[in-house]
Amino acid sequence: MEYEYDDAPENHFSIKNLYGEFDTQEQLDAEYNVETAVANFSQYIEGYLNRSEKARKILTDRVVVLYGHTTMEKLTVYPGKAIDSPVLLFIHGGYWRMGIGDDFDFTAVGPYEAGFTVVVVPCAKSQHSRNGASGAIGGSVDCKKYFALQW
Question: What's the pTM value of the predicted model, to 2 decimals?
């Protein structure tokens, strides 16, 4: 029997390859656990925090806009110097195990200095992470970017 490419059986989702080359959800989660995969991971986080604190001291004209019901559903606007400044959205795509949106304010400095209005949109942590569990990759990640972009 001849198949069109999209109709070929090997192109259909299979429970057999749900985790790719991994056998279990736990193995897949371990592969995505940056905290154990990167030897100096805490130094990166500390650097983000320090640079973001400095950024907030430099960029004092910031506006925080809530677009949802949780503390993570907010965006931070750093208005450009001109009323018609182009807008750059920094959407944190998610390391959903730890951190908050303010950890990424450092990303606004360069674009702001280049004449942009910068909007920093964080990704909420997963339910698993909020409850103190592993933050499993298969868990729900509450990235409500749609509402932020609607704003």
Answer: 0.65
